[in-house]
Amino acid sequence: MTPRVSVIMPVYNVQHFVKSAIHSVLLQSFTNFELILVNDGSTDKSLEVCRSIHDHRIRIVNHTQNKGLAAARNTGIRHSIGRYIAFLNSDDMWHPDKLKMHVKHLSQSPKVGISFSRSSFMSHKGRLIHFYQMPQLTGITAAHLLCRNPVGNGSAAVIRRETLNDIRFQALNHSENYSCYFDERFRQSEDIECWLRIMATTEWKMEGIPAPLTFYRLSQQGVSSNIMKQLASWEMMIDKAKQFAPKLLKRHEQDARAYQLRYLARQAIRNGQGKNAIKLMNRALMISPSILMDETSRTCITLTAAYLLWLLPSALYKVFEHIGQYFMGHAQKVRISKDGVKSSLIS
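Above: the chain sequence. Below: its structure as C-alpha cells.
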C-alpha cells in the first residue's frame, strides 16, 4: 500500500533526541505513512540510533557531508512517495494524533496547501512547560506570513505534494537534474522562505489547526540561538523575496523587520541576554513603532521581560518568569479550549 503521508526528518548530531522524535512518529494514530530519515553527515551516534529502530515504514538516506536542513528536506522530498509531506526536526516531537488531524484537515480543505498546528514548548530535557505558540490560524495572507510566520517552527507543517511541485525549481549548480523545493543557499530561514514563495506566487492557502500537536524543544545550543546569524539569514530571505514579490516587500518590509527583531529579542531573553534583547526591541520600535499599537500586549510583554532580565538578579528574574509563564500558559489553555480543542489534545 502506497503511504499517504511521507514524514521527512533531517538528522544531524542529535544522538540524545532523535530516538524520541522517531518514536513520536511511530506512535501516530494515523499509520499509513513512511518515515524518511535523512542523515545529514552526522559525526556522533545519530545514525547508529536510527539504525537500531526497526520498522518497515522507516527508510534511511545518507548525505556524505553536512548540507543543512534545506538540502536534507529536499533529499527527503525527492525520495518520498506520499500525497502529503510532513516535516519533523529530529529534536522535536509530535502528539500521537498529529498526522490524523492534518490528513483530515487537508482532505476537507482542497484549497489549503500548507496545514500547520499550534505548538507546545518543551524544555531542553523534553519536559512540556505548558506554554504555547499562539499564531493566527485562518485568513493568513502573504503579508501576515512575512511579518509573523504563523507556522512558527520546522516541525509544524504538513504540505500537499502538489503545492511543493508548484514551487519546485532546478538547482543551477548541479549538472544533473536536481529538483529543489527549499533553497539550499539558506542555512536558516529556509522554511519561511519556502512558505512565502508558496503564498506569494501560487493560489494555495495556509491554515492552522487549533490543537497544539507539535512539541517544540527550546535549546540554547541549537541553530536558533545564534541570533545575529539568524538575522543575517532573514535579511537574505528578504533580498530574495524582493525578486518574486516586490510589491509585497515595498509595502511591508519595515514592519516585517520590526516583528523579526521582536522575535529575536524573545530568543535573546530565553538565552539570558537581557541587554541584547533591549537593543533588539529598541531597534524594532525605531524601525516600526506601529508594532506597539498593532500587537500591544506581545510587544509590551517582550519589552518588560527584556528590562527585568537586564535589571534583576538572575534568581529573582526566574521567579517573575515562572509566575508570568504560569498565568500566560493558563490563559492560553483557556483560549485553546474555547477554540473547541479537547482536553486530551492540550498537553
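Residues 246-270 form the longest helix (25 residues).
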